[in-house]
Amino acid sequence: MNAIEVKNLTKNYKGFTLNNISFDLPSGCIMGLIGENGAGKSTTIRSILGMIKPDNGNISVLGKKLTAKTKEDIGVVLDEVGIPAVFNVNDINTIMKKMYKNWDETQFFDYIKAFSLPKDKKFDEFSKGMKMKLGIAIALSHKAKLLILDEPTSGLDPLVRDEIIDILNDFTRDDDHSILISSHIVSDLEKLCDYIAFMHNGNLMLCEEKDILLEKYKFINVTEQQLSELDQSAIKGKKIGKFGAEAIAEADKIPASFSSAPITIEDLFVFMAKEDK
Q1: How far apart are CA 23 and CA 7, in angstroms?
Q2: Which of 114, 153, 178, 262 is disulfide-compatible with 161, CB 3.0–4.6 A?
Q3: Helices 89-99 + 105-114 axis angle, to 10
Q4: Structural domain boundaries in the chain
């Protein structure tokens, strides 16, 4: 079963269109939505969560249409964790026990301890990293099968970001657990994800297993003449300068006489986005 299926998702705003997006997230996997700010990542996530109504398309979550019952199985962390400013951890536990039938108080306070979060401090006194850890603790404490996270590492220092990545990796040790996570910090998702989906200007540029992408494409540094001799459909992006050309191309279409080097997911996204422009 797929954890998420998105088919032909379209949403029109003045000056922006989420354009016919389709992808599947297999159960037990982590998919990263990569894209610059304004690429359509948040619109996609909010459509999946039923927070906005698409103009077209079909979405299923955990094999079903989204319902109140389905939402019990989804842990959500958005860029802004929506907790009232005056609440402390104990207040939040009291509220969540009433919201989620599967709320696990013991597990919640275990995460609070593991994340070194104060129980008596008001939420608006938390740092951004503390707020994000609290959001993740909440998402992980009602036996969710699917986590959906929108820019959870944005604005955090590298140490906190690395902690969060470890937490998410632990969550998917259970084969029934899946994660959809968006970020414009590509290096974080490269460490974490099984699947990568590139979004740019409201379009889904590609969606593929990360390891396949890293095998499929290579980096080449050639002359402009050599670049022109390549099958142009094999080139995913290029930069032409005064002293030659750099490009990312399909590995099996690069001549043996050319030297090539491995790419990073960030390289691939940057080159593809620039080529699209």
Answers
A1: 7
A2: 153
A3: 150
A4: 2-212, 216-276
Three-state DSSP at 63 gives coil
Tokens representing 244?
């030659």
Give me the mean pLDDT over the 51-76 stretch.
91
- pTM of the predicted structure, to 2 decimals: 0.90
Half-sphere CA count of 241, side-chain side, radius 13 A = 8
Neighbours of 44 (CB within 10 A): 28
Task: Look at residue 260 and give its three-state secondary structure.
Answer: strand
Q: How far apart are CA 89 and CA 276, in angstroms?
A: 46
Fold of 2-212: Rossmann fold (3.40.50)
Average pLDDT, the chain: 90
pLDDT at position 276 over 70: no
Q: How far is CA 116 from the centre of its chain?
A: 25
Of 69, 45, 42, which is closest to residue 59 (Cα–Cα)? 45
Amino acid (1-letter code) at residue 181: I
Helices (H), 6-157: 41-48, 68-71, 89-99, 105-114, 128-139
Q: How far apart are the first and last CA of the chain?
A: 36
- Match 């088919």 to its residue by tokens: 7
For 7-41, the DSSP string reads: EEEEEEETTEEEEEEEEEEETT-EEEEE--TTSSH
Residue 232 backbone dihedrals phi, psi, to 5 degrees: -65, -25
Average of pLDDT values for 152-173?
83
